[in-house]
Amino acid sequence: MGMWALLDAMWEMPAEKRIFGAVLLFSWTVYLWETFLAQRQRRVYKTTTHVPLELGQIMDSETFEKSRLYQLDKSTFSFWSGLYSEVEGTLILLFGGIPYLWRVSGRFCGYAGFGPEYEITQSLVFLLLATLFSALTGLPWSLYNTFVIEEKHGFNQQTLGFFMKDAIKKFVVTQCILLPVSSLLLYIIKIGGDYFFIYAWLFTLVVSLVLVTIYADYIAPLFDKFTPLPEGKLKQEIEVMAKSIDFPLTKVYVVEGSKRSSHSNAYFYGFFKNKRIVLFDTLLEEYSVLNKDIQEESGMEPRNDGEGDSEEIKAKVKNKKQGCKNEEVLAVLGHELGHWKLGHTVKNIIISQMNSFLCFFLFAVLIGRKELFVAFGFNDSQPTLIGLLIIFQFIFSPYNEVLSFCLTVLSRRFEFQADAFAKKLGKAKDLYSALIKLNKDNLGFPVSDWLFSMWHYSHPPLLERLQALKNSKQD
């Protein structure tokens, strides 16, 4: 009864109060739903203390226990950080944090001699202050995650100095992109007339294509070192595989991901006839810094087969060895190239652009509604940037949740299809062992609650992927 009474009371209120109440109510509903799911998954981490039968061949009990404890720590962290960010967001709304920050930005502009007519200038100051606030409140959480959780479980490779320099660099680079792009977007919305939403959408389309193009060549190298993969067997085999499926490969890079973390990854990027592949050094057994450290500790030569070494050292090398063999790296790339060959990348771009167009169209319909601004404490002015914030972040949130869930389901389908593609290339066996190794290296926990995984997992659970590959290995 209480819930209906609350909804009834809301319905009696003026429109702006109704809008504000609905936004808060929806935000907390989503938060409680996600917390409920996280608790279900947490129960799985707590109660599954032995390797399930079907995993016996895949995971030893030591790795299983390590990954269980890692995921438990991560889930505790995400509970507290999630609660904090929900409470913070609620307090900002209840105490008028957004209009307050807008007024402060106006004051700053006033000091510099810009009056209220310089709305775009004020919007840029607002963005700078808002992102600064969010970077500072997020910093303690980020520090704790990196230097306590990731450190405790052996993933963190950063020093505090590297971390802080990185955070400052990230903030500066973000501002260098965010501020000019936002000022142009606001200008286009202001001068675009009745069809401004078409121009705004085209502008964001161009910006996202330009960013995708320059990201790996100009932005990513500011943070990590990229070196071309040296000539040799692996490079040759990658080129042969790319050619066999007409993938227009121009360069293969190894990125020094091990400076930050020992998690591993691989991806490709680039448009049209100019594709590059990027492999994390932590993915490659031959390049992994961790393996080199183990070899140095054990006094082993890299190529020695370890004969004559103590059993303890052999065990240490066996357990600690990180990354995949060349055949497995090729299988992982076969999967990644499958995404390209099957048009997943293009389909994702099309979906995201259709969504973006729809959002700008609805924004054009709603931007004139004064009650939307009044609901969030803007009684006298209706700044365009604030309109974007209110409509895209708050009013569209139910739509965004549904869309996000649909994209997660689609992503899982794409992953199965890319696995099947790698299988067609004859890489089922190697992909099978690579997935097990990567799961072990990244301490993924292979047991999941069905509801939690359905809502959150962009990749299918490990067992399902292995099952699909196994069926084909026997075919």
From TrEMBL:
The keyword Transmembrane applies. The active site is at E336, D419 (proton donor). Binds 1 zinc ion per subunit. One of its GO terms (biological process) is kidney morphogenesis. The keyword Membrane applies. Zn(2+) binds at H335, H339, E415. It comes from the Eukaryota. Its cofactor is Zn(2+). Its main location: endoplasmic reticulum. Residues 41-225 form the CAAX prenyl protease 1 N-terminal domain. Gene3D superfamilies: Metalloproteases ('zincins'), catalytic domain. Keywords: Endoplasmic reticulum, Hydrolase, Membrane, Metal-binding, Metalloprotease, Protease, Transmembrane, Transmembrane helix, Zinc. It is found in: Endoplasmic reticulum membrane. GO terms for cellular component: endoplasmic reticulum membrane; nuclear envelope; protein-containing complex. PANTHER family: CAAX PRENYL PROTEASE 1 (PTHR10120). Proteolytically removes the C-terminal three residues of farnesylated proteins. Belongs to the peptidase M48A family. This is CAAX prenyl protease. It comes from Bos mutus grunniens. The gene is ZMPSTE24.
